[in-house]
Amino acid sequence: MKTIVSLLASAAIGLAAAPAAARPAAVQGDPTLPTRDAAGNEIVVTASRSGEGTPVADLPASVTLLDADALQERQIRIVSDVLRDVPGLAVSRTGGIGGMTQVRIRGSESNHVLVLIDGIEVSDPFQGEYDFGTLIADEAARIEVLRGQQSSLYGSDAIGGVIQYITLTGRERPGVSLRAEGGSFGTAAGGARIAGAGDTVDYAVSGSVYHTGGTPTARDGNRDIGSTSVGTTAKATWTPSSTFKLTGVGRYSYTDADNNDPATSGPLFGFTVDSPGVHSRVQGFYGLARAELALADGRWTNALTGQFADTNRKGYGAAGLANGNSGRRYKGSFETSYRIDTGALVSRITGAVDYERESFRNLTPGGFAFTGRRATENWGFVGQYEGNVGDALSLGASVRHDRNDRFADPTTFRLQAGYRLPFGLRARGAYGTGVKNPGYFELFGFADGRYIGNPDLRPEKSKGWEAGLDQEIAGGRATVGATYFESRLEDEIFTTFPAPDFLASPSNRTTRSRQHGVEAFVSARPIDQLRFDLAYTYLKAREDGTVEVRRPKHVASLNTTVFSRDKRFAGTLTLRYNGRQDDVAFIDPSFVPVRVSLREYALVNLNAEYRLTDRFSLFGRVENLLAERYEEVFSFATPGRAAYGGVRASF
Question: Using a CB cutoff of 8 Å and minimum separation of 24, what contacts does 606-609 make?
């Protein structure tokens, strides 16, 4: 195993690379835009509030695109698994599949990451972050990841960056597809999709289900921690003319997952132990409607968007409902953008106004400080400039001012530029600021004798810069890149344990949290029968000189796919390395955290698919091929080797 780890880390460093230029991008915008422009260049729909896709080659920002083919080749069923292949990202799952899953970008906290699904902001207002444990993969989707401070476009939450999960439209991938599979740990999963497009209408409806009996998550336990997850999406577009388009998106997700709790007494105090009857249910309803009007021969575009997110989370113990909360978000946006083409210089000027109302309601039966609702309203005003001089120089600037009825009114900004030399080398750099408002639990939460919120918390503030190089090789068959980044966080919210009662409570730090590192990537298709993607991240994250938890110094991945000449067979080898990292353990009865170190680990997956006919194919995969024993979160055991197989049909 150490040999595999050494080879993977050495290859990552030696091949030098960074923010995924060969696979780019980020979020919001129009979720029905195509993934490529008329010239066949990959585009992203989020690094801009203009509503138009931006070619990756013209974007002077760190961005990664995981397309539908990559997700299918790697047989991704849990979306957070493939995020481990993105430079700059660290993933940690508590327990088994369906358990709380956090994603951190460039050493930021998980609640510093803005998450969108088909343009809808999906974070839970109560927790202040999105739980990736509730997101299972659809039959046809892509992922865009934009790294770095993006609050100037999206406001609070986008300190570390933006992740958007986008289901494909009926025009991008029409037809009917069905999938059924099963395997280790009593796992059964499936998916279905029907999609199509006419002259004026485009539609896609998809659904996926994933059930597993699970494995023990207590170190010496025997209770299997299973889960059942369901995800459905409907997306439709009506385009009655070349100047008007109406889009609607609806999504539903449901996860019922078993959980184990830490022991509250005895020699295993603070360690995860078998907890019969403990489980959680998370249900989410999401919707979006967007109307777009193009004027002046398409140079002036206008869009009006309304969206909502309704998240309900309930935790159950042996005696029934133990805790719960409900969070809602209503959001409206107006965007107007004008393109000016003077020949050599093409400019786009965009303005946007956002209104957002978040509310929270406590569902826990007793033991909390309040049982009513709390709400926050925010107005955001955005200005953005994008410019390109020929195929060489690209420029960008954005600024946002927020008016919030609970916190101070911040102004954030971002500047970025890139220049491409004639031999395919592109240099780029950016500087930006970000902000993150406290979540409701941090403000008002209360657990008798253990935790009390702090309504006087201030928003966290961030600033950072990056500089990178991308090089195309062999006429675009390969791309290599590397990026250096630095960030600084002020007023960081952390949990204190003051004597003499050691009652936990959040507060703002007076010291600064600093992160810096290197992201690297290589993406290549040297011949039609071979594709590989390599990503590596070096991160140094410190708070007043102390290493921050759940942020490994080294993370790397390698995905290699081999195709037969007739394209009927495809096999993918995936290696993922996660370096040693610190965590906190509450193994002292005072509840004061104890710092622990989690050892490094490497996972090897092997996937294969064979098309029997043009419509039917068989597939199979082995996960954790070498049966690695590891922990992502202190004292939570993880699954061993597993095998799965199934059939896919397309019409």
Answer: 606/571, 606/572, 606/573, 606/574, 607/73, 607/74, 607/75, 607/571, 607/572, 607/573, 607/574, 608/569, 608/570, 608/571, 608/572, 609/73, 609/75, 609/569, 609/570, 609/571, 609/648
pLDDT category, 14, cuts 50, 70, 90?
very low
- Three-state SS sequence of 104-147: EECCCCHHHEEEEECCEECCECCCCECCHHHCECCCCEEEEEEE
Q: Is the pLDDT of residue 11 over 50?
A: no
**Nearest CA to 399 among 158, 160, 153?**
153
User: Is residue 163 pLDDT above 90, yes or no?
Assistant: yes
Instruction: Examine residue 498 and say whether the peptide bond preceding it is cis (omega within 30 degrees of 0).
Output: no
Tokens 């430079």 label which residue?
87
- Quick one: residue 214, left, alpha or beta (phi over 0 = left, psi -120 to 50 = alpha)? left
Instruction: Supply the pLDDT for residue 15.
Output: 34
Express each pLDDT in 373-397 by its tens digit.
789 999 999 999 999 998 899 999 9
Which residues pair with residue 249 across a beta bridge? 235, 288
CA distance 502 to 451: 9
Measure the CA–CA gap between 48 and 54, rounded to whole angstroms.
7
Judged by DSSP in three states, 173 sits in coil
Say whether pLDDT at 27 is over 60: no
Q: Which residue has the tokens 């309504």?
A: 455
Residue 587 in contact with residue 553, Cβ under 8 Å? no
The owner of tokens 């005895």 is 266
SS (H, E, C) 291-324: EEEEECCCCEEEEEEEEEEEEEEEEEECCEEEEE
pLDDT band at 33 (very low <50, low <70, confident <90, very high): low
Cα separation, 467 vs 431, whole angstroms: 9
